Amino acid sequence: MKKLLFIIVLFFSLQGEAQESYAGPESTRVEMADQLRSNGKIYVVVAVLSAILLGMVLYTITLDQRINKIEKETKQ
Questions:
Q1: Are 49 and 40 spatial neighbours (Cβ–Cβ below 8 Å)?
Q2: What is the arithmetic mean of pLDDT over 53-72?
Q3: Burial zone of 9 (CB within 10 Å; 0-12 exposed, 13-18 middle, 19+ buried)
């Protein structure tokens, strides 16, 4: 429980630091993102990243189920 609380606090503290160092949209123009957005290819990037993330989540869930099954078998 302490480990989870520590990770959550660390995550939010790092988010606060990132927001303080952000200077604004005028100083950080990303030309590649603007070009992808204008061509409509940003949706392809988002779809690929979503598919990768979904695959990782599904793999983690199935791995957890397999580990739980093995743990139950070893207890018997």
A1: no
A2: 95
A3: exposed
pLDDT tens across 6-59, in order? 777 777 776 655 555 555 555 566 677 777 778 888 888 889 999 999 999 999
Instruction: Report CA 11 to chain centroid distance, whole Å.
Output: 12
Give the Cα separation of 19 and 37 in Å (integer). 24
Residue 21, token pair as written in the block: 């160092």
Query: What are phi and psi for residue 12, nearest 5 degrees?
Result: -70, -30
Q: How far apart are CA 52 and CA 43, in angstroms?
A: 14
